[in-house]
Amino acid sequence: EPEVTQTPSHQVTQMGQEVILRCVPISNHLYFYWYRQILGQKVEFLVSFYNNEISEKSEIFDDQFSVERPDGSNFTLKIRSTKLEDSAMYFCASSTDRSGYTFGSGTRLTVV
Amino acid sequence: AQSVTQPDIHITVSEGASLELRCNYSYGATPYLFWYVQSPGQGLQLLLKYFSGDTLVQGIKGFEAEFKRSQSSFNLRKPSVHWSDAAEYFCAVALSGGYNKLIFGAGTRLAVHP
Predict the structure, then answer these.
(1) What share of chain A is helix, strand, coil (3-state, %, to 5)?
(2) Which residue in A12, A46, B76, B109 has the fewest CB atoms around it within 10 Å?
(3) Looking at the complex, does the CB of residue B114 fall below 8 Å from at least one CB of chain A?
(4) Which residues of A are less than 8 Å from B103 in CB distance?
């Protein structure tokens, strides 16, 4: 069964550093998303992406965040200057109109 | 505002017992409905989804869910729980059309006693 692949599985970074989280969505999916889950809390929507542009973003997704689809397969989330409160599990997801949403296994980001 | 409520934060059942996890949503129209399961430190696995049609939906691992429009509910059920079902379960909704964001409930943590 097709999968959404995320790398790395775990990243530790120092506060103030930039991080890039990578995702390879399912190849025939058209819509891409980033979600995050702070430890012990619910999954929160960050941003959706379609046709090479952001279609919706949450209030969490401020100027420190950006997304990009640099080629035909990768979908990245960049955090420019990480803060302690950015520590969370970040999930990438992709979908088509009727497929439902397939999630990757996540990247655990730890900011120290 | 759109919201998803899972009233039970934590449920404990005995192995072999039946299970029902509750989910209520608040949306202007009938949304797409999903249940996901998450084992500790793992990703989100889709158990089942409802888009339209038959209101009783069968999923993986022996789970089913019933959409009740009048109650704005989408409760997850399993007739006989296995110890391996211990995990966190999330109900999620999206406006119809697979490009809309998912809104998650807070989750229900299921513990299974032998």
Answers:
(1) 5, 55, 45
(2) A12
(3) no
(4) 45
The alpha-carbon gap from B21 to the nearest alpha carbon of chain A, in Å, equals 16
Hey, what are A33's tokens? 């998303």
Instruction: Give Cα separations from A44 to A36, B27, B50, B86 (angstroms).
Output: 5, 17, 21, 22
A63-67 long-range Cβ contacts below 8 angstroms, 24+ apart: A67/A32, A67/A34
* pLDDT per position as a tens digit, B59-85: 999 999 999 999 999 999 999 999 999
Chain A residues with beta carbon closer than 8 angstroms to that of B45 = 103
Q: Is A84 helix (H, G, I), strand (E, B) or coil?
A: helix
- The tokens for B106 are 């807070």
